[in-house]
Amino acid sequence: MVIIVTGTIGIGKTTVCKKVIDMARSDGYSCGGILTFKTPDGGLVIEDIQTGRKEKLASTEAIYEGPATKKYSFSTIGIQFGIRAIEQGSALDILFIDELGQLELRGEGFSNVIDLVSTGKIQNLVAVIRKALLEFFLPSLGSPVIFETTCENRDNLPGKIWASFLHL
User: Model-level pTM?
Assistant: First the structure.
């Protein structure tokens, strides 16, 4: 099952994923993959869900040697850290990817997830994709179940997402 958590920037998509992870773990499921968090200076940190280890992923300043978007420069060390977390997490019950974005559309970043899904190597995926980018990813992800995060539903949304897994 492929589930997409979407919504606008800053609406709480990562928080929704964290709560789904907690629900899955409390029911005995193993979870892996990555979560991303903003830092106080506006950069990004990536967390390996399985181990809890963190690594700097991106900065709003051009300080990293990796790929760049209009807003961020990315650390190749952070990207490789995330790729390893994804590869290790793909063998677990549920893989979480927070988030697929501009880099992946260009075949960079964590674009290997798209290949893993299309070849059937990932059975259960929860991917965060910003609402504005959703149309570009849908053709590669089969027939995902899409949950949009809003201010009104973000407290109840994790339970709805988890319930969809339990009905498999």
Answer: 0.92
